[in-house]
């Protein structure tokens, strides 16, 4: 029977999906340190974590039963992915389960800032009836400039068009335009026409400081700026200058270069106290719906891996999408990627008169992953021979 340990208060659906497939699930609310985790992992095949649990090489060395780790979040820095792969432990995350939540907060902010709701709200809370249309606009007919047309950028494009916005985007990669969105070939072209500029680029190192004084200066007078991507992408001192000068009419910022670790911690930023600036504590993707979607997605990935050997979207193993097995057994073989492994496996099978019904191979760097469906029974000798090949990292037989 498979056993899973789920830490850090995951959404209940993460547990129910695993239990429905007969997995015994142990849950804990907090994270565990190295020693506690290693101890708790004895006899555990699946580990579910969020960002606080560190899955180090030391932990992995002491968790011989572990088959897979699910990061029920986006980031996977907390897992030593290489060490896990080389011990035959697959890792999965939820790369796009919270993207809709980011899109919705972006839309809310675009309307709120274009309408200067922040100021009206603040005034009324302070007891001042500031009824005025000055500086307040509809978003209909205005141009939204999306920088980074990926999972989030594309969804925002579709919903913004439904609101009557005209969408332009700039992406450094070749991207298909959705709806009537217009692709522009440089960031500068986008900055010249956009009434709202919103950043949805990924966190690659080269994006550090990509949006600074020069880019703010190129924005249209009175345009609005949003960053819900990564804090290090934007020079916030430059944003502050452009908000104070009035050149940028409003901004929403959800991500910061140095974010406090814990809820309730104090927060320092150049952007605090600026007019028509919405600051949020990296909650773009934080909704109950996103948590549920993440729970479903990652538990599903873990089950597909242990049940079928499928590694689709694994962040550390070669990716193979697999259906139900076709034969009576499925041999799942993770190995060091050197010439001749596939031939070696097939030779062993042929020598033991085991017929191959289907076979797929994928590689990723120095790892190879071959999945073989066989029609006949496997003797312990076949399994032992494959399991002790010098290149074998892990062999599993699914039946
Ligand atoms: P994605 O990887 O699907 O899309 C990123 C796009 O940006 C890609 O199309 C890429 O080609 C493009 N890109 C990268 N560098 C660029 C550059 N310098 N100029 C133009 N285009 C560039 O990523 P996804 O899922 O859409 O996420 C976007 C960002 O949102 C990421 O940085 C992610 O970390 C962040 N995010 C923030 C959340 C929050 O809570 N605020 C929640 C989820 C994601």
TrEMBL record:
Q: Which reaction does it catalyse?
A: (2R)-3-phosphoglycerate + NAD(+) = 3-phosphooxypyruvate + NADH + H(+); (R)-2-hydroxyglutarate + NAD(+) = 2-oxoglutarate + NADH + H(+)
Q: Name one GO biological process term.
A: L-serine biosynthetic process
Domain of life where this protein originates = Bacteria
- Pathway, per record: Amino-acid biosynthesis; L-serine biosynthesis; L-serine from 3-phospho-D-glycerate: step 1/3
One GO molecular function term of this record is: NAD binding
Q: What is its EC number?
A: 1.1.1.399, 1.1.1.95
Q: Which PROSITE patterns match?
A: ACT, D_2_HYDROXYACID_DH_1, D_2_HYDROXYACID_DH_3
The answer to whether keyword Nucleus applies is: no
Q: Which family does it belong to?
A: Belongs to the D-isomer specific 2-hydroxyacid dehydrogenase family.
Q: What is this protein called?
A: D-3-phosphoglycerate dehydrogenase
Please report the organism this UniProt entry assigns to the protein: Actinotalea ferrariae CF5-4
